[in-house]
């Protein structure tokens, strides 16, 4: 689930924000944060506002941005939000048999974390396989939360979870 | 009895006990230069003992142990009947009961003897009780040899890092596991193949579960948590996962991302957890050590991160830790 961050320029008057938020929620977006950048008021006295939201896929995001523009709001920039915290973990065991896509979905469906990369090795049928997955999240605390979920999943599915040592010297 | 003479008793005469005896014999002049005159008045094993209040011939004692075996008084009787100033306890570890070392240590302290041990069991089961008893009796209780063999860590934290709060310890504390993981990675061998090789080389025991299931690492972690992190930990607090499920493919996949896999024991005081588990370790990380080495990263408030590494086991390596404890106890007393 991509997280989109847009910066819109709004007149400093009541009701302005709604023109932006309505298209997001109607378009299926989930608003994560709204930050008024009052220190960056433009020469025309517009306030930049950074809004982050998650959507099902990139196409929905583009549709939402078009709707916002149709309402006369200036969309200064938009980009897929850099996921802030990333870690690699390894799973060893009967990864496929225990429904790998379910394992990944349960991370992706959190809305704040997703599996961004995976490398797998399956030696033989019925032998334990290994997957190295990279998880990104919107912040360190969210990443920890995602790892907690993964620990529970691995316990339930009897997979060995090899966590990183988390130490850069 | 000669007041300036240090009378030593050695309980347990396997590889470690014999290593200590040999070093006490071979390096007598050097050690006496630090602590003054000493002699070993009793050596015991599970079968019997040798005693001589005038001092045993240590090389002869090793010979007797090898060829005939000990007979006579058992350890408890020796503790009761022989006068000694310091007990060196090197009997085998039992992390659940602490015995027989626990009783040996308690009885020795009650006789006002200092105690130096390489036996993890009593420290895992009864750390607080033993520290209190030592305080009450005014004797020293030293246990550098219980963690990391020759690798200095307990005295390092207590002496050289005095004044620091130790916040996190992460370590490779079991040489057998580290050897197995290193070989699996290098030779692409399976866990069971490497295990039999390690058993043949006497790096792993016939019953390897104590090492490979992470029990030994957990015991050492509990000792570190209690002795240098004030965590009041018990063995049951440690979440333990061993290395038996790691596959050669695990290393291939980890390697593609520049990681290796090591069994890491971690004590984290802030988060309040104790954990032994295989972890992904970046290849350049100081804990990504190879072979039977031990290493530990000590995170402190003032000194930052300190990393130590060294031989984690072995006859002379463990004797090194015991002899350094002996020197510390009596050098201070002498000064």
The rough form of chain B would be described as globular
CATH topology of the largest domain in chain A: Alpha-Beta Plaits
So what's the CATH class of the largest domain in chain A?
Answer: Alpha Beta
Into which percentage range does the β-strand content of chain B fall? 15-25%
CATH topology of the largest domain in chain B: Rossmann fold
User: Helical amount among residues of chain B, as a percent range?
Assistant: 40-55%
Q: Helical element count of chain A?
A: 4
What's the order of the H and E elements of chain B? EHHEEHHEHEHEHEHHHHEHEEEEH
User: What is the C-level CATH assignment of the largest domain in chain B?
Assistant: Alpha Beta
Secondary structure: number of strands of chain B: 12
Q: Largest sheet of chain A, if any?
A: 4 strands, antiparallel
Spatial ordering of strands, largest sheet of chain B = 3-2-1-4-5-6
Based on helices, strands and strand pairing, what is the structural class of chain B?
Answer: alpha/beta
CATH superfamily of the largest domain in chain A: ACT domain
Shape of chain A: elongated
| pLDDT < 50 stretches of chain A | none
The second-level CATH architecture of the largest domain in chain A is 2-Layer Sandwich
State mean pLDDT of chain B (0 to 100 scale): 94
CATH architecture descriptor name of the largest domain in chain B: 3-Layer(aba) Sandwich
Q: How many discrete domains of chain A? A: 2
3D architecture notes:
The complex is a heterodimer of chains A (169) and B (335). Chain A has 169 residues and is of the alpha+beta class. Chain A has two domains: 3-80, ACT domain (Alpha-Beta Plaits); 85-162, Alpha-Beta Plaits, CATH 3.30.70. Chain A is built from four helices and eight strands. A four-stranded antiparallel β-sheet of chain A has the order 2-3-1-4, with helices on one face. In chain A, strands 6-7-5-8 form a four-stranded antiparallel β-sheet, with helices on one face. In chain A, helix 1 packs antiparallel against helix 2. Chain B is of the alpha/beta class and 335 residues long. Chain B has a six-stranded mixed β-sheet, sandwiched between helices. In chain B, strands 8-10-9-7-11-12 form a six-stranded mixed β-sheet. In chain B, helix 4 runs parallel beside helix 5 (101-110) and helix 6 (120-137) packs parallel to helix 11 (215-228). Chain B starts with 5 loop residues before the first strand and ends with a helix. The model of chain B has no long low-confidence stretch (mean pLDDT 94). At the A-B interface, strand 5, strand 6, strand 7 and strand 8 of A face helix 12, strand 9 and strand 10 of B. Strand 8 of chain A pairs parallel with strand 10 (273-282) of chain B, so a sheet runs across the interface.
